[in-house]
Structures are given as structure tokens and as C-alpha cells.
Amino acid sequence: MSKILPGCRVKLAFTLTLLDGTEVDSASEQEPMELLVGDGSISAGLEFAFQGMRAGESGRFDIPAGIAFPAPDSDKVFVLPPEDFDSDIVPEVGQFIEFDLPSGEATVARVLNISEDGMELDFNHPLAGLPLVFEVQILDVQC
After folding, report:
1. 13, 56, 47, 15: which is closest to 32 by C-alpha?
2. Predicted TM-score (pTM) above 0.70
3. Domains contained in the chain, CATH given
């Protein structure tokens, strides 16, 4: 039986939660996640947790803050002046808004504050800097 290494194709079921038990992502045995280790499908910090495991194994990993997703970066917080956002959007603090980047990629920002100066937006990953619990069951490994 193959051990999970970079370049292996892996099928897994998992649950990713915050420390308080709030589920932030999951994949079931019936609808597993399939990935090529190292392809960027999931955070390298999460991949590292299950490298070396084999099909049929499972584990629970406490992922410290900053490992699965980087610490928040203040350079990713911007104030968008009122004239720069669509008047059809009625934002609320805490809401996530999708933006198109010049590259054509889409990204998401969380609204931190709304004032006369504009909308303060945080483009950090929503899980940036949070400790997580990663429970994983390895269903299949092809190397």
C-alpha cells in the first residue's frame, strides 16, 4: 500500500472546523475530495498533515494558526471610495463581496466598515490566522 507523497492522487473524506466546532468545509465518503498532492487544491498546511498516511487510515490534526492559511496581512485591507463601488450593492459589515481581479480571477473580500470615506475591505483569506481542526479519512492513494 502506497504512502501519500507529493505527486500521488488521493481520495479523501474530511471535516475542517474552527476550535469551537463550527464546520468550515467538508467532503464525505459518498462525495470525497480527489486531488493530486501538491497541485494547490488545498492548503499545503493541510496536505502536510496527511502526507505519509495510507488508504484506510484516518487522523485528527490540530492545525495551529498561520499554518493552513497565512496570518492576516494589513496590506490586504483597503478602503474603496464610494465612487468606486456599484450603487446596486448595499453592503453590510461582515458580508463577503466578490471582485474580479485584472487577471480575470475572482476574489472575495469581507466588509469591515462602511463610512462616508467608503467601504473598508479585507482581502485576506477568511480563515487567515485561525487555528483549525482537520479530521481526515484516506479512502484511496494512487502513486
Report:
1. 13
2. yes
3. 9-69+127-142 (3.10.50.40), 74-122 (2.40.10)
